[in-house]
Specification:
This is MEKHLA domain-containing protein. The protein is α+β, with helices and mostly antiparallel strands and 154 residues long. Helix content is 34%, strand content 29%.
Length: 154
């Protein structure tokens, strides 16, 4: 990650959207920090993975914290150019597509599990993931995010 990325206003704003949206859907905080500058740092340094993508037809990841970057074995520039569908092996993309469709009606899905693959081909099984729609203060959908603290390399 770029050393000063947590200082950049776009990352601070996106961090607020991530945290506020999570709290909106789940009625609990993603992290306990709320100040914009410290929130961005708290999310990036969290001991669990956090990733998100935008609303494009073929969404591209736009955020990953340090834990997620390590799991996917990518740096920030490479991760933020990766289509999110490529984070799963081909045989698991249909399951992932079904789950993402459920988000349109529920706002979030919890207890999600699935196999993901790193840039180096390492497969890992995520468990108890929460996936949620990222929204702004007006309720407009900005993207989707996921967090998980449980994974196992296969």
């Amino acid at each position: 990650m770029h050393p000063s990325l947590d200082q950049q206003s776009s990352v601070q704003l996106w961090s607020q959207h991530l945290a506020n949206s999570y709290a909106h859907w789940r009625h609990e905080p993603l992290v306990t920090v709320t100040e914009p500058q410290t929130l961005a740092q708290a999310l990036f340094e969290a001991p669990f993975a956090i990733v998100s993508h935008g609303t494009q037809a073929d969404p591209i990841f736009n955020y990953a914290n340090r834990c997620a970057l390590d799991l996917w074995e990518l740096d920030w520039p490479a991760f933020t150019q990766l289509p999110s569908r490529l984070s799963a092996e081909p045989m698991h993309r249909d399951e992932r597509a079904t789950m993402l469709a459920q988000l349109n009606t529920q706002g979030y899905v919890d207890k999600y599990q699935g196999i993901r693959i790193s840039s180096q081909g390492r497969r890992f099984y995520i468990q108890q993931a929460v996936i949620w729609n990222v929204i702004n203060q007006n309720g407009d959908r900005l993207g989707q995010a996921a967090t998980f603290a449980h994974w196992q390399f296969l």
